[in-house]
Amino acid sequence: MSEGEAEQERAGYRRSAGSARGEARRLELLERVTDDLGTNGLVDFSLRRAARAAGTTHKVLLYYFDGPEDLLTQAVLRLRTRRIDRSMAAAAEDSASRTLAGRVRAMWPVLVGEEAWVLDQAIGLAMYDSARYAQLAREASKQYLPSLLSILPGEWSARRKHEVAEMILGVLRGFLVEWRTSGDGDGIEAGFAALDRALTHEEAAAD
């Protein structure tokens, strides 16, 4: 490709990036980078590695994303969305999910399953370098809370739903840290027993 043709191609990317076709292309690239992230993790992530995974060049990625940190953040958010979708599906399908405690229990194998280690890396990165990656941690709550709110009884008040959803999120995060750092399955199971009782009590109590 000549220099003139390359410049025309770059100009075309700039014009199309905000169009419906450009958005479709951006999402296609993001899906490929997300797949790579889920397999290889965050260590050694770079724009060039992302370009190889997406089957394009790093210059093309820069037309669709605001640099490597933006691309990494969006890929992590996409990976987390996949995890949330799977956990909600598990909660809906599990035979025990007729109770709130059962629905929360059904989510756990997904939370510690496929790609979990990568999302744990993302939270660690946000804690290690909050100036650059704090959004990775902040966005986690924004992503999880709507799904947790959706499994709570519809007749509850908005305030009560928010309180219980925040409790579930905080406890599950604690379990995830314990699972990742110590692998104490017995301790986590004991914690789940207490969480089950708390949720059973909440579900039985009048609003």
Automatic annotation (TrEMBL):
Residue ranges of DNA binding: 46-65
Bilayer-spanning residue ranges: none
Domain HTH tetR-type intervals: 23-83
Gene Ontology terms, MF aspect: DNA binding
Record key words, sorted: DNA-binding
InterPro entries: Homeodomain-like_sf, HTH_TetR
PROSITE patterns: HTH_TETR_2 (PS50977)
Keyword DNA-binding recorded: yes
Keyword DNA-binding: yes
The protein, known as: HTH tetR-type domain-containing protein
